[in-house]
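Title: Prediction job returns without error message
Component: structure pipeline
Severity: low
Priority: P3
Assignee: unassigned

Description:
Job completed but the reporter wants confirmation the result is attached to the right record. Sequence as submitted:
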Amino acid sequence: MKIIYLFSFLFFNTFNVMAQEEVMDHSHLPINVPDNIATPALSLHLVKDAMSGYNLTLELQRYTLIPPPESVLSMMELMKASINKKSGFVEGHAHLYVNGIKIQRIYGKHLHINKSIFKNGINTVSVTLNNHGHMYWVAHDKKVLSTLYVDIAKTPFITYKFESFPVK
């Protein structure tokens, strides 16, 4: 009887650990751009929308911005460095953060940001490039990201810009 109990305990705990590994959030882990692949470049442009809020444009070089594959892959497959077959560059999507809070995933170069997301005073608008497993791309020991410092009460409203690998 003790053997059956022990076997059941080990089986269900092993299954539980494997299930947890499948659903873990990997968005805060780095993934290196392979040495033989060109480093992606990212710059941001933010303008006031004519009606409300702001319009953000991602300017990219050497990166393929694409939604994750439709076919269900394992998390282990999604966590690998994905190279686009057509371009030869790393591929994935981007994450938008406003004031350090993740707002959404980005699959295209243009998006609208609602004015209500911004607070009074200085705000940060950051975009990271991520693989399909949500890991952020790193090249030469630096995260591939761009950040704008925005004060919506000032003109011009962009007060500072940081780009780890700017588009040239």
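Comment from assignee: result matches the submitted record. Confidence is low (pLDDT under 50) at residues 5-24.
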